[in-house]
Specification:
This protein is an alpha+beta fold. The protein has a single domain (10-23, 42-194), classed as Cyclophilin (Beta Barrel). It contains three helices and eight strands; from the N terminus they run αββαβββββαβ. The protein has helices at residues 10-22, 61-72, 164-168, and strands at 41-46, 49-55, 83-85, 89-92, 124-127, 140-143, 156-162, 188-191. The chain has an eight-stranded antiparallel β-sheet. It starts with 9 loop residues before the first helix and ends in a 5-residue tail after the last strand. Residues 40-183 form the PPIase cyclophilin-type domain.
Length: 196
């Protein structure tokens, strides 16, 4: 995802960030009673702690498969949260840290869920892209707060089920652009089923 993405431009970024800050932070929906399959849990080690993300193949099977593939290749290890906007989201998954990088794999077609089925709430994890809905590759973002304007516009592939307090501590970027100087990095990313 490049700097034109996620929200389509600098003006839109400011508008949506302000919109998100005006909304009260609500907790993500409660975790299911039965534990998720370890094959569908992404475990991130970041400077502030461990974050567990439940992958949602029922919503976005191709995006979940991409996340698993890149994770198992070690792609996300040491990648920065290069764009972090207070009250809105933390974006990572670009090994260049510029907002323009991605993997060598082809871009993915959008897998939008109806807003009634999947919404951008606190802890929702979505795929970043350019203005082209079918341009997602490796970059993703974790929501700090709800933002209904993203519903049905960006692919949702996961939700934080533990460690949201660690997400809240990710180093913030400059006001407006969200560009982070000396950003926090993902120390490691693993699928829970692979952790021994």
């Amino acid at each position: 995802m490049d700097r034109r993405t996620l929200l389509g431009g600098g003006v839109a970024v400011l508008g949506l960030a302000a919109c998100a800050q005006d909304q009260p932070a609500r907790a993500q929906t409660a975790a299911p009673a039965t534990p998720p399959d370890p094959e569908n849990i992404l475990v991130l080690q970041i400077p502030s702690g461990e974050v567990r993300i439940q992958l949602l193949p029922e919503l976005a099977p191709n995006h979940v498969e991409r996340i698993k593939t890149l994770t198992r290749q070690g792609f996300y290890d040491n990648t920065p949260f290069h764009r972090v906007i207070e009250g809105f989201m933390a974006q990572g998954g670009d090994p260049t840290g510029t907002g323009t990088g991605g993997s060598r794999l082809p871009n993915l077609r959008a897998e939008f869920s109806p807003p009634s089925r999947a919404r951008f709430l606190r802890g929702t994890v979505g795929m970043a892209r350019t203005a082209d809905p079918n341009s997602a590759n490796s970059q993703f973002f974790i929501m700090f707060a709800p933002n209904s304007s993203l519903d049905g516009q960006y692919t949702i592939w996961g939700r934080v089920i533990s460690g949201m307090d660690a997400v809240d501590k990710i180093k913030r970027g400059a006001p407006g652009s969200g560009t982070v100087t000396n950003p926090d990095r993902i120390r490691s990313a693993r699928i829970a089923a692979d952790i021994r």
